[in-house]
Write a structure and sequence with these properties.
Elements: E1 4-7, H1 16-33, H2 38-57, H3 63-78, H4 86-100, H5 108-117, E2 121-126, H6 130-140, E3 148-151, H7 152-155, H8 162-171, E4 179-183, H9 186-195, E5 199-203, E6 216-217
Parallel strand pairs: 1-2, 1-4, 2-3, 4-5, 5-6
Helix pairs in contact: 1-4, 2-3, 3-4, 4-6
């Protein structure tokens, strides 16, 4: 029997991909003022971000190092030297957009409200930098809609480490097997949760993982307990 549903945040409840596109448009305006072609720069940003974020998750980069390098490394790749303060400006523009104006998926609130009516406890488990994630939670109201929020940077342990999931279950006094983890990452939200003894459901909005044999849904309306 499921008593607790734990949701990932970005690209699960929050449509981070769409918000990021808006932020990239704002970055392009800043780059244009500097006489820098936006397309190759933003492409380079996309190439360096995930590897850098993984280093942050693993504790190999500080939060500030990750944030600065996701915009300084693209300049290095393109053989460009930014003016003093430009990297910090790009980071600030990006963060203000994605953290203070996040877009929720249309199925987020209806799903949370339905599960709450069904008597289930709710939690959020995310690996993102704590200050940014807290800003998103405040901007959307999600922080007040769940029983517990766990952020890897605050907890000192991130998905897919088993303790990331088990601490959420333990905080609410619920056995791991009675918890369902829902998220978009096959590794962080599905495999990691199963390895920790939880149930897991992969959110596969694009239908990209249909042949993997993982238990999945195409939208949050499919989360049933």
């Amino acid at each position: 029997m499921t008593k607790l549903v734990i949701f990932d945040l970005d690209d699960t409840l929050i449509d981070f991909a769409s918000t990021r596109l808006v932020a990239h448009g704002l970055l392009a305006e800043v780059l244009a003022d500097e006489g820098i072609a936006a397309a190759p720069f933003l492409q380079a940003c996309g190439e360096v971000d995930r590897p850098l974020f993984m280093q942050f998750e693993q504790g190999r980069l500080t939060r500030q190092e990750y944030r600065m390098r996701r915009f300084s490394d693209p300049f290095d790749r393109l053989g460009l030297v930014p003016r003093e303060g430009l990297v910090a400006q790009l980071n600030r523009v990006f963060m203000d957009c994605v953290n203070d104006s996040p877009k929720l998926y249309d199925d987020a609130w209806p799903t949370l409200e339905r599960l709450r009516r069904d008597g289930l406890r709710l939690a959020i488990l995310t690996n993102g930098p704590a200050d940014g994630q807290r800003r998103k939670l405040a901007a959307t109201g999600l922080g007040d809609a769940v029983d517990h929020v766990a952020i890897g940077e605050e907890a000192g342990v991130s998905k897919p480490h088993p303790q990331a999931y088990l601490r959420v279950a333990g905080h609410l006094g619920i056995a791991p097997g009675e918890c369902l983890m829902v998220g978009d990452s096959p590794t962080l939200d599905y495999e990691g949760a199963l390895a920790a003894g939880l149930q897991a459901l992969l959110l596969d909005r694009a239908g990209a993982h249909g042949a993997t044999g993982q238990r999945s849904v195409r939208d949050l309306h499919g989360v049933r307990c």
